[in-house]
């Protein structure tokens, strides 16, 4: 089985829409393929994220979405790895690792400071992140303000 990762194109919108909707459902959001499609169309139009598609034996298997941002303290650009999703039938076969490695390579290509991500404390992918050199932040608290 061969895994291939590549920068997604607008022509990948149908398969990305299906996967983004499944990703959202995984995180207990209601299925809404039309909203997923609209969201992805905006990302392509506004060019405010980079999406990489993972394929196994020529079939779509997962995606990773990176959002460029800045670190004021280091005065450098960085990515927020906001989304990583592998279709259930492809999990445990290296697709997630290939997508994470592609994200790391992209970061190096651009000369960025690094990649940040947050994940649920019970997410089994944590072991994969740590295996690939990601470090759990134990020095900071993360806060979120939700608009009413």
UniProtKB/TrEMBL annotation:
Protein name, per record: GNAT family N-acetyltransferase
Annotated ranges, domain N-acetyltransferase: 3-148
Domain of life: Bacteria
Keywords noted in UniProt: Acyltransferase, Transferase
SUPFAM superfamilies: Acyl-CoA N-acyltransferases (Nat)
Keyword Transferase annotated: yes
Cross-referenced InterPro entries: Acyl_CoA_acyltransferase, Bact_Acetyltransf, GNAT_dom
UniProt xrefs under CDD domains: NAT_SF
Gene Ontology MF: a single term: acyltransferase activity, transferring groups other than amino-acyl groups
Pfam families the UniProt entry points to: Acetyltransf_1
PROSITE patterns in UniProt: GNAT
């Amino acid at each position: 089985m061969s895994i291939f990762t590549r920068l997604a194109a607008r022509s990948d919108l149908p398969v990305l829409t299906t996967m983004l909707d499944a990703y959202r459902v995984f995180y207990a959001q209601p299925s809404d393929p039309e909203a997923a499609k609209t969201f992805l169309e905006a990302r392509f139009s506004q060019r405010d994220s980079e999406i990489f598609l993972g394929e196994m034996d020529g079939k779509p298997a997962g995606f990773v979405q990176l959002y460029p941002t800045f670190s004021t303290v280091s005065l450098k650009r960085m990515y927020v790895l906001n989304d990583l999703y592998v279709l259930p039938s492809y999990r445990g076969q290296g697709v997630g690792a290939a997508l994470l490695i592609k994200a790391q390579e992209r970061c190096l290509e651009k000369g960025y400071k690094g990649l940040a991500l947050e994940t649920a404390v019970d997410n089994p992918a944590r072991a994969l992140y740590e295996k690939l050199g990601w470090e759990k932040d134990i020095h900071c608290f993360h806060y979120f303000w939700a608009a009413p």
